[in-house]
């Protein structure tokens, strides 16, 4: 994963300190590209343990067109918890303790962290148990799954992933194998506007490659997940279309390290990368839309220990 470590070094050496939406502050560069040859191994971070189960279950959630947090909670996947929770605690119906700036406060204040954990647990239980509550406060709005599988039009909706697969099977040389998550008419209704906004597939010599444009990239916490997620997507689409995997090209817009992640990044840079693992798929005649996490596995993964850092919401 030297490409990722080179990105971290580039930002530390060339980045500009900027303010951001969360109030945390970042060091940032604009415009950066990485390329991963998927024939040489699955690009799951080895300089810190990265939770592949969370990456895979989130991607499958997207591919099924789901946008409700209930599914991820039941999968024990907390990736989107904070954004659903924020919608709840900023609503007029919420009457509990003040949760303003809960992400940073829970790191600095142990007493508040206990209260926050209790409120989050109560929120997640209610999403799972209360259908009405889940529909209102577990739904994250028209985020990735909605845009990928049911892009709204005046006449109905467009299933971009099915069209992508059909196009790859029937006209592999087309330059229009594109899926967009950035829908200007619905961005304001999303819990989080899409960071990975658009991707394009390309076929050459029987190999499927993908280029992602990511407008905003949280380099320490988010980017390792994004790399592995889209690498997995390439494998799944390639399997569906009878192709081999090629390259994953990751193009970043605002690539930033949060100022409260600086020590974690430096610790990661001090570690030596290890051999990449391999990905195994067990489709058994299934469509990718019917696959579960049990159909996907990683072999030979031997990472350094995980490094914790607060998420900026």
From TrEMBL:
The active site is at 195, 195 (nucleophile). Its EC number is 2.1.1.45. Pathway: Pyrimidine metabolism; dTTP biosynthesis. Gene3D superfamilies: Thymidylate synthase/dCMP hydroxymethylase domain. It catalyses: dUMP + (6R)-5,10-methylene-5,6,7,8-tetrahydrofolate = 7,8-dihydrofolate + dTMP. The keyword Transferase applies. Pfam families: Thymidylat_synt (PF00303). Its main location: cytoplasm. It is found in: Cytoplasm. Keywords: Cytoplasm, Methyltransferase, Nucleotide biosynthesis, Transferase. CDD domains: TS_Pyrimidine_HMase (cd00351). One of its GO terms (molecular function) is thymidylate synthase activity. DUMP binds at residues 21, 175-176, 215-218, 226, 256-258. GO terms for biological process: methylation. Residues 2-313 form the Thymidylate synthase/dCMP hydroxymethylase domain. PROSITE patterns: THYMIDYLATE_SYNTHASE. Homodimer. NCBIfam families: PRK01827.1-2 (NF002496), thym_sym (TIGR03284). Catalyzes the reductive methylation of 2'-deoxyuridine-5'-monophosphate (dUMP) to 2'-deoxythymidine-5'-monophosphate (dTMP) while utilizing 5,10-methylenetetrahydrofolate (mTHF) as the methyl donor and reductant in the reaction, yielding dihydrofolate (DHF) as a by-product. This enzymatic reaction provides an intracellular de novo source of dTMP, an essential precursor for DNA biosynthesis. This is Thymidylate synthase.
């Amino acid at each position: 994963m030297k490409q990722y470590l080179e990105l971290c070094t580039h930002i530390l050496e060339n980045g500009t300190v900027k303010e951001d939406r969360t109030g945390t502050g970042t060091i940032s560069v604009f415009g950066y590209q990485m390329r991963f040859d998927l024939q040489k191994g699955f690009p799951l971070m080895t300089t810190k343990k990265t939770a592949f189960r969370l990456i895979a279950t989130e991607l499958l959630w997207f591919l099924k067109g789901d946008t409700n947090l209930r599914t991820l909670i039941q999968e024990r996947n907390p990736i989107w918890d904070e954004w659903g929770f924020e919608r709840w605690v900023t609503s007029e119906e919420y009457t509990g303790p003040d949760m303003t700036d809960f992400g940073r406060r829970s790191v600095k204040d142990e007493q508040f962290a206990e209260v926050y954990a209790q409120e989050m647990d109560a929120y997640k239980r209610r999403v799972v148990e209360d259908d009405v509550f889940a529909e209102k406060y577990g739904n994250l709005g028209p985020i990735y799954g909605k845009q990928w599988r049911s892009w709204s039009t005046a006449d109905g909706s467009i299933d971009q992933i099915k069209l992508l697969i059909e196009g790859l099977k029937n006209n592999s040389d087309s330059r229009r194998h594109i899926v967009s998550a950035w829908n200007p008419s619905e961005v304001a209704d999303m819990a989080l506007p899409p960071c990975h906004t658009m991707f394009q597939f390309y076929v050459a010599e029987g190999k499927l490659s993908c280029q992602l444009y990511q407008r905003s990239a949280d380099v320490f916490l988010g980017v390792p997940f994004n790399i592995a997620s889209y690498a997995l997507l390439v494998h799944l689409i390639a399997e569906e279309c009878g192709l081999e995997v090629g390259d994953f090209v990751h193009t970043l817009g605002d690539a930033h390290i949060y100022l409260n992640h600086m020590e974690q990044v430096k610790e990661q840079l001090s570690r030596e990368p290890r051999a990449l693992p391999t990905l195994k798929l067990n489709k058994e005649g299934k469509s990718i839309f019917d696959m579960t996490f049990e159909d996907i596995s990683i072999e030979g993964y031997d990472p350094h220990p995980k490094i914790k850092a607060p998420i900026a919401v």
